[in-house]
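Could you join me in thinking about how sequence relates to backbone shape in a protein? We need material for that, and I hope you will provide a protein of your own picking. Label the sequence line and the structure token line clearly, so we can match residues to local backbone shapes. Would you write everything just below, so we can both look at the same thing?
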Amino acid sequence: MEGEEPAHFPNIQCRTDLRQQFALTLWYPAFAVRPSSCVDATMSVIHTASLLPALHDALLALLRTLTPADWSRPTVAPSWCVRDVVAHLLDVQLRRVSQQRDGFSGPAPEQAIVDHASLVAWLDTLNARWLRGSACISPPLLIDLLAMVGPQCATVLGAIDPDAPALYPVAWAGQSTSPHWMDVGREYTELWHHQQQIRMAVGAPLLEEPRWLHPVLALSVLALRRALAPHARDVGTRVVVQLTGEAGGLWHAERVREAWIVGVGDAPAPVARVVLPATTAWRLWFNAIPREADVFDQTDGDPLLIDAIRGMRSVMV
């Protein structure tokens, strides 16, 4: 009934408290993150909740222009056509509303989630199951369903205190716990980069204006923590990433104790520095171009750390 509190489902047999499981199992040395350090102190809060409704509207407007042939066009996502990407976006938002609003997590993983690889494998399984099960949904109905759930998802995410604990930690950023604003940022980058995949496939204009792209990049550079984690260096060692163009910026990572932290701005005496266009950086970090592509305008310093930045990904792979 309208006005009633949404129901919660704590006793359904298939439900598992994945938040607790993730919090326990995602803390392992490769992440080089302490449980009490959910985000680097030098990073400002990156607010993206207010962008979600407009991003969703842009997606619906795009989808309503597609021809029947467009839905079958291949995308840069391996083995996924445009229709598959759209179905995945619907799945992402349905799961988010179910979990965040209704407390319903669905079936538990068949195997324990003990590291990054097992988490990625579980997410790949969920994605594959959804694509098989949703194969009979027509493109017009996919649009209708997105039009229904998208605003609900944005409302749910926007109603929570940005500093509250996140539903799940952001694993690609090497976090064992995260604030809600980082969780919203993950959702924003997920919805944004999949929409980019659709736009690239059908030849539509990309959403690369600073309004859209700068928050994506500001969030994505937090993946430096996990990318650099295998590379132990002396305390105080610094690397700098400079992204050129209107949507770009300047960030650095610094070694402290047994971890790397990420901050905004330049850093003195870095042992490695890379410079690349902002419009290339997102393609690299979201798997839209091959890892071996010649993407840097300038590199200087430690080749192992430079290669780690090249291999960094801001998605679950």
Q: What stands out?
A: Residues 180-202 form the longest helix (23 residues).
